[in-house]
Design a protein that fits this description.
Elements lengths: L1 H16 L16 H20 L11 H14 L1 H6 L2 H17 L16 H17 L1
Helix pairs in contact: 3-6
Amino acid sequence: DFIPKCRTCRRQAREQSGEADHHEGMSSDDELTPMERDEFQKSKDNVLEDSRKVFEDVHADFCDIRKILLKFQEWKEKFPDSYCDAYISFCLPKLLNPLIRVQLISWNPLEQNLTELEEMPWFRAIEEFSDVENVSES
């Protein structure tokens, strides 16, 4: 009973002040103040900056998903028995997880200019690797 009264009071206050920036159905409790918005943006920028540094001291062959998958493809072609015995299909998700997560840090599925997952370079590299793997198995 308290919550509807608060909402009614806030709605009346908005109507009296002529505030047209509010979207009906969006709780004003969820709205961020400009200071909170700036603080969030600074924090987000810091995280993105730190994420760019994660692999800066790693050799290029080991921080590029396509290059890593090419190494596994070479292994599979040259030594198929050991490749199969190593259960690589189970290991790849854990191996590629940190690389993919770093690339997804800035991805926001709610943005207007959304890049679909299927269009991301890491997704295409995994898809190509999977297609090569499926063709050779069949």
